Amino acid sequence: MTPHEAKQRLVDAGRLLEAHGQADFTNGHVSVRVPGRQDIFFMKPHSIGFGEITLDNILTVDLDGTVVEGAGRRHSEVFIHTEIYRARPDLLSVMHSHPPHAVALSCTGETLAPISQPAAIFFEALPLYDGEIDLIRTPEMGRGVAAALGPHRAVLMRNHGIAVGGVSVEETTVTALMLEQAAMIQMLAMSSGRAAPMFAPEKVRALQKNLSRPDQHVVNFNYLLRNLRA
Ligand SMILES: [Zn+2]
User: Residue 160 Cα, ligand 1 centroid: separation in angstroms?
Assistant: First the structure.
């Protein structure tokens, strides 16, 4: 993948995140490592919405959070990205947002239950960061989020939002959308006041394996993009 192609994927991801309920005014951000580089990444700038990312306004940022290319202001929460990238060399893309159902779930004290297909991919794999409700403005706070994430793909941030990482922009984006979908289903189910028995853990793990194929995330990303353009 060329740097241009990586930037284009970031533009596409922004449009999908905007269209699928991940926007909270201009809060939220998404990034991707510069192809072939572990020390710098492309990132959405501050003061614009997810859907307003363009090839020209994307910032290039290093692992200290310093902008090395681009004129826009960078998000103060850049440290979610820098510290996850430092802790997880395997991840090539990171995002953070405030989707309402995931935030609501984080306020209940409940964990995400494996009661739907999108929830299954997070089974035993969605830790909670509860160090702060404030913006993640320092490397130390970013390290707290990265530590909570551990070896997983996503972390729920109590009373605040989600942070998601993936091996591609496509995986990061689709994982974020699946997390919000799963949280919405759970909040609806919980609002009924009833709890039905869950499937056995081994059945959920089998589904989790099926749903976690990286190629399927790319298929779904491209589908959503075609839908947006139609
Ligand atoms: Zn935030």
Answer: 6
